[in-house]
Design brief:
Chain A is of the alpha+beta class and 701 residues long. Chain A has 25 helices and 22 strands. Helix content of chain A is 48%, strand content 15%.
């Protein structure tokens, strides 16, 4: 369990020889790749790779793999959709899914696919708008300019524009995407093989997972044309071969100051782990109620367990004295450099102190901010219906304001994605909603105290269970039409609504907004402004040959197929089908699905299954293509090894590994286990693979 | 949530004015009490207090409150017994319990009461036995001498003797107790009022809990005679009055080195909190299965939630930079003092380094040691039946060895207490056992990895759920006679047993023992030896006017009834019945039981309910009497305030408070709500209160 780390520093002087970096496409170090691997990515090559890459807006990466809109990603990236399309009668998570014809492809209620069309540097505009501003004024000016830039760019609902904060405020990029909201499920294997080894093997290697799913983007009811796509490698990758990964790493914290890292290590991280651990236990207990309860909560349990394991790895890195010591040295080196020049010292050194003070301020508001506001966002702590209600309530109020003055979730540019989720037809399980709402209310009371005014307002004289019961039973928000009516009706409809879930969201909104404002003005704005200064200092010291922390925007990394050494053990880079059959015990999570057991004698057991590379990735890169210098797919990223989890804070080429499914495993399984020849043909560019030409595909069955 | 701490240091020079200290009875600072409060406890007074104090061997404190063996403690200290005596038909936890006559008093299967008869300083013998030894030799020599001392002392099964390590090895005491194993339940109120406010109000004040239960010790089938007991105060306590608390604080860490505190803060504590959080979630989920599942798991849930809240408070203290900074200063001051004398520096300073190295060693074995060995002990991580099986397996092997060579759990002196628990007739719920066993197996696999040899041995090709299912269903260990047969049959019977739970315990035993040995020899022995040296240095620097860290042995603390200031808010020292009625919402955990609702018009609403004092206590003190200088009961300790949780590491008189039930609340409730006049009379020393004279008591109903 102990990490043996020789951390390579982010600072440019040390970077030259390592396969480190999640590079923006507009600053890719082609010459560095040429020097180490003898191949120089050209601008045209980079453009092709960028346009063939895709993002699942909910938090994953993907790639276009045919000219007819076929998208490859992980099973775990589509898990929620597969669960949403299932019923108590037909469980596609358990049994897998294969659309034999184009007509059988089914729409995923909440998946949006993005393709990055262009990057524009808008640093100057943001800096001009925020010049001289601090705190609340900084936030307001930034939000207004961001909204304006996005609005100007997003001329059409088929576009998605986002101002991205890079280098924590050192640079701002305007990212313009093509947006696909009609995304259909084409193929998914059984969960048992997609996630073979389950939580015990998660982040581990050797590994034997077929963590793949295929989706297709549609446009006007027909498969979209995607001329920019990756081709399939006939041969696959071999050890030592140069590999690229293009995808959307979600978040890294490599450029944080020591004060910010200490906050994470000592406060946020252990508390997040406690919350996740309790949620995990609670959902595990809930699953005892029966198979249907288990079915509807498996995606959430997976998400929670995955978060626990990932966060634990990050926490272990932060509390490793050697690892943390390196981070301290790195900051000291930068400060020493700054200190040499009195003008720079005056300009940049106070930024470190300002950020440290913002951490202290954050500690004072961390629990209420977390529990009243932040967890109600993406983590949907009170359940899906509460999340919907909160957005309906806020959306009513916010959309009445000028764009630039709204909370960022309701900027004009953000609405299409939000509306897709708000009006999703995905089924909602009431028992599970009650569990989640009661959990949130219980924790708020526990962590803020029964006598906190916001808690008293929320709970009144009722218990969390009681409230969850009558609010979930009484709400109409399961009905998409009811949501739409409240959304369209705006603030007046919200004020007039007697829906108990809407009432609960109304009740908590003022307190949640108030604490969010404190956070944005007194913590976030201070961090952004001062991190901008530190980024400037870093550019001055080390030049532009660095990469920004991950921001769930498209990045390209390079590396090679390579195992690693753990103590006195050499880990080989490839596994095979044979190894998977050997590891199987017949018991969950080491139980192979029936299709695999049946196929044992027909598959080539020597087929490479999963493999590892030195590419620098992080959570969010799941579903990224691994490709060679000819832009041919050789694998599909689905994980990092356990030692890559410290990658949030720094990259160590000796042990940090990307874990991918081998392209040969995909073809072997699709052909021989699933008979999914329609997909295989399409991947190989054969005409029969295209949708709408169902006869051939069906015939191939 | 933030602590505002002006930590008073443990080092003697700073101690003089604060009500700090959990003093051993053989080193009580009477002159200090006299100076501050004008009362000098005499040796006779101290002996009387000591003999009137009691310990529940399972982890609580208590007191003798009549000459006929009546024992007062908390409801939460007897909760498990009350649950064990309940059935699906009759739930005494929910409804309360009152034995109207002596004949109605029912035996608690697992409670042992101890009365401290004598303390002997055995430091010289232990030091002589361990002189010059290190590591494994130190452990062996220490264990052998400890076993010999205890064996010599424990001349009779009615005695219990324990060698206690004080000052972490600076001093050793031989504690001789009278042991009562026939302990019967006399009275318990409803859980709803014993724990009014539940987890949200736990460790909070103002507070409104009647956290009391009465037990009685029996001897030869009759109530034991206890001439040394506390009398009842007719008037109760008033603000500012001198109060004493005599009880058994479980553990403090005030004398740990900074290296040890850092280990706790950065590694053990956050991981313990994660484990507890997950268990809590899991049990909460399990309770959804139905009322019976809820009933059988409530005591465990209480224990877990209480641990979460207590540990979180401790963790918050450790990660408070101001608090921790004080601890660092304290150690620096001691080291500076040592450094002045070269001879002392040579003798003592290396001890700090040795302890720091032991922490690094501990980090290497912490996860396997925790999960394979430590959690299988008192926390019974795999459930009660697995705990029993492990002791049967080990007991068979260990009892065949000479006393001094056994694992400490099986020393001759330790067997009576162990046997009482092993052969307890308490019911076992199979569903809950399965949940707990599967949880343990799952976590072992998760935290050690599926490929760890011990894990492979334990799980084979089965899943945790599967194993839990067939092992719990298949075991005979629910049957006390079956346990006794295996225990009496020793190693041969164990080897021959086909019981699946015994088989599982056998399977894990070698790995668990091996990692325990590493821990004992390479961590514990090093800590004990070097802490002994540091204690010596501390004595040399500050004299004997300090107290040792808590060790679940009898301590006396002094203080006064006093509220505190939190920010700009003054917290008054007393609450009243009226306040309790006001706080009630009718919903769990703020629902008063029917008896209290009915009695509202009959009770005196101005009756003091709970109150706070400056006495220095910690977990384990639950159930301690609060008494005045005339040895009269004025209250019953049941909690500390939230700011007392940092008390594990240091005492801050400004905010650290003991929380107790007022003696007047006890009398008012017993008389007017429960009609328990038999107990009231006995407390007041009236003859009709004594058991066996049932007519009068029943008549009073």
């Amino acid at each position: 369990m102990k990490r043996l780390i020789t951390l390579l520093l982010v600072a440019a002087p040390f970077l030259a020889t390592a396969d480190e970096g999640m590079w923006t496409y507009d600053n890719f170090p082609s010459s560095r790749v040429a020097k180490k691997y003898g191949f120089t990515p050209t601008p045209a090559w980079l453009e092709q790779a960028r346009l063939a890459s895709a993002r699942l807006a909910g938090g994953c990466s993907a790639s276009f793999v045919s000219e007819d809109g076929l998208v490859m990603t992980n099973h775990h990236c589509a898990h929620e959709c597969i669960e949403q399309l299932s019923t108590a009668q037909k469980d596609f998570v358990k049994d897998g899914f294969y659309a034999k014809t184009g007509a059988d492809e089914v729409k995923c209620p909440e998946i949006e696919v993005n393709q990055l069309l262009a990057i524009t540097d808008v640093t100057a505009r943001i800096q001009k708008a925020t010049a001289g501003a601090e705190g609340a004024r900084f936030t307001a000016a930034f939000q207004a300019e961001k909204a304006a830039l996005e609005r100007e760019c997003q001329t059409d609902a088929s576009l998605r524009c986002e101002v991205v904060t890079l280098y924590h405020g050192g640079e701002y990029g305007l990212y313009r995407y093509r947006r696909f909201q009609d995304v259909r499920l084409v193929f998914a294997p059984e969960f048992a093989i997609a996630f073979f080894g389950g939580d015990p093997d998660n982040f581990m290697f050797p590994r034997y997972d077929l963590d793949v799913s295929f989706l297709r983007v549609y446009d006007g009811g027909k498969p979209a044309k995607t001329p920019n796509h990756f081709r399939w490698s006939p041969a696959g990758a071999k050890a030592g071969e140069l590999t690229f990964v293009s995808g959307h790493p979600g978040r890294t914290d490599r450029l944080l100051t020591i004060a910010q890292l200490k906050e994470l290590r000592d406060f946020s991280m252990p508390d997040i782990l406690q919350r996740l651990a309790e949620e995990r236990g609670l959902i595990s207990g809930f699953q005892l109620l029966g198979p249907e309860q288990k079915r509807v909560s498996t995606a959430r349990l997976f998400y929670t367990e995955n978060s626990v394991k990932a966060r634990r790895g990050m926490f272990d890195a932060l509390r490793d004295p050697a690892f943390f010591g390196q981070k301290v040295k790195e900051e000291e080196a930068l400060r020493a450099r700054i200190s040499k020049d009195p003008a720079k010292a005056r300009r940049y050194l106070p930024a470190f102190d300002a950020i440290a003070k913002a951490q202290a301020r954050y500690e004072q508001i961390r629990r209420p901010y977390t529990w009243l506001e932040a967890l109600g966002g993406r983590p949907r702590i009170g359940g899906d219906l509460f999340w919907i209600a909160r957005h309906l309530v806020r959306g009513g109020e916010e959309r009445a304001k000028p764009d630039g003055e709204r909370l960022s979730d309701y900027h004009q540019s953000a609405l299409p994605a939000l509306e897709q989720e708000l009006f999703s037809a995905a089924p909602v399980n009431l028992d599970f909603e009650k569990l989640r709402l009661a959990f949130w209310l219980t924790k708020v009371r526990e962590l803020l105290g029964a006598d906190h005014p916001a808690v008293k307002k929320l709970l009144g004289k009722e218990s969390p269970d009681e409230i969850a019961q009558h609010v979930v039973d009484g709400t109409q928000l399961r009905d998409v039409a009811a949501r739409r009516k409240l959304w369209d009706g705006g603030a007046a409809a919200i004020a007039a609504s007697a829906d108990p879930m809407v009432a609960l969201a109304r009740l908590s909104d003022a307190d949640a907004r108030a604490i969010r404002k404190v956070y944005e003005d007194e913590v976030e704005a201070v961090e952004k402004k001062n991190q901008g200064l530190i980024a400037e200092a870093r550019f001055a010291a080390y030049g532009r040959s660095t990469y920004p922390d991950a921001t769930f925007t498209l990045r390209l990394s390079y590396g090679q197929v390579k195992g690693w050494r753990e103590g006195d053990r050499e880990i080989a880079p490839f596994t095979t089908f044979a190894g998977g059959y050997e590891r199987a015990t017949g018991r969950d999570p080491f139980a192979l699905p029936p299709s695999w057991i049946t196929a044992r004698d027909h598959v080539e057991l020597a087929t490479p299954f999963d493999f590892v590379t030195t590419n620098d990735i992080i959570g969010g890169n799941s579903g990224s293509p691994v490709f060679d210098k000819d832009l041919q797919i050789v694998g599909l990223v689905f994980d990092g090894n356990i030692l890559s989890l410290g990658g949030d804070y720094g990259f160590d080429e000796a042990v940090n590994r990307t874990v991918a499914v081998d392209s040969r495993a995909l073809i072997e399984a699709l052909s021989k286990i699933y008979g999914a020849t329609r997909i295989v043909d399409e991947l190989r560019g054969a005409p029969s693979g295209a949708p709408g030409r169902a006869a051939a595909a069906t015939g191939a069955q």
